[in-house]
Amino acid sequence: MPDVIRxxxxxxxxxxxxxxxxxxxxxxxxxxxxxxxxxxSGDVTVARGTVVGEVVKFDPxxxxxxxxxxxxxxxxxxxxxxxxxxxxxxxxxxxxxxxDIGKKLPPPMTPAEEAFDKVMxxxxxxxxxxxxxxxxxxxxxxxxxxxxxxxxxxxxQLFFKNRGTADATGWAQDAYKFVDAIETAAVAGKWExxxxxxxxxxxxxSTCHAQHRERMDDGTFRIKGSS
Length: 227
What we know:
- By secondary structure, this protein is α+β, with helices and mostly antiparallel strands.
- It has two domains: 2-95, no CATH class; 111-223, Four Helix Bundle (Hemerythrin (Met), subunit A) (Up-down Bundle).
- Helices cover 53% and strands 14% of the residues.
- It has seven helices and six strands.
- Strands 1-2-3-4 form a four-stranded antiparallel β-sheet. A two-stranded antiparallel sheet has the order 5-6.
- A hairpin with a 1-residue loop joins strand 1 (39-41) and strand 2 (43-46).
- Helix 4 packs antiparallel against helix 5 (139-163) and helix 6 (166-187) runs antiparallel to helix 7.
- The two termini are 20 Å apart.
């Protein structure tokens, strides 16, 4: 976010028009190298990408009120120079490569969280393959995936137990039982029972995700309360 605010302030200094709140177009001065072209009109468009955010008069006190988790780090001379000029509090800064550099990156995962993330990705891949095995009534494919999922859910139980998350620990135990029931029914050739337990497993996963998974600004998922 510091780069976003700084970028907005510099853009403000380049504007030909500083009337408020009329839209203004920024262009480089004669003889200068082209810089990002900024059109202020609700959202902000730049030639090298797109900025989306709130257009405001630059004022450190107002910035602090609107962006409570951000500390303005501009030097005093720039603060004085741009105070009262149009600026943008950006919520998204999309580059020409479609990367959003305005999103707040999540903190690094702990070793335990990294290990659990790998477990969940394994669960996702195995569950997809399991669905295929069940739809094809394939005992071999189904057993391959139940073996993987059993190991995954045992590791999930340990992870949540170590975090003191009782409900998720219980759900991981129940998920293990559903996987075991899937395998038992598949071996017996009871594919209707397999489908029933598979649906129960999916519901259990959804319940746990709803309570303990959150989407971060960068689009990734983390366990709530991570790091």
